[in-house]
Amino acid sequence: MATRNFYLEAHVDGQKTPLKGGPASKTGGLVIQIYQRHEGRIVQAFKISCGARGCDLETVIERFDRNKSEIVSTFTTIR
C-alpha cells in the first residue's frame, strides 16, 4: 500500500465499499471525529488527529466526556 504520512481505512456496516484515503500532500494530516447518540442527543465520543511535528509524525486520540476532552493515547514516529 503506497501511502503518504497517514492513511485510513474504515469499514462501515451497510456500506458496500470501505472508506479509504489519506492526505493529498506529503505534508498533510487527518482529523477523524466519531459521534454517537446519548439520551437522544448526538455527542462527540472521540477525535483522532494526525499531523507532522517537525521531523516527527504524531497521532493523538482524544476522548470526550461532558464537553471535556482528555488525551488517551499518543503515537509518534520519525518521518
Largest sheet: 4 strands, antiparallel
The poorly predicted ranges are none
Element-level helix/strand string: EEEEEE
| Strand ordering within the main sheet | 3-4-5-6
Shape verdict: flat
- Judged by helices, strands and strand pairing, the structural class is mainly beta
**Overall residue-averaged pLDDT value:** 92
Description:
With 79 residues, this protein is mostly beta strands. It has a domain at 24-78. It has strands at residues 8-10, 19-21, 30-38, 41-53, 56-65, 68-78. A 4-stranded antiparallel beta sheet has the order 3-4-5-6, with no helix packed on it. The protein has a two-stranded antiparallel sheet with strand order 1-2. Strand 3 and strand 4 form a beta hairpin. The model has no long low-confidence stretch (mean pLDDT 92).
List the topology elements:
Elements: E1 8-10, E2 19-21, E3 30-38, E4 41-53, E5 56-65, E6 68-78
Antiparallel strand pairs: 1-2, 3-4, 4-5, 5-6
What distinguishing features does this structure have?
single chain, two-stranded antiparallel ribbon, mainly beta, 6 strands
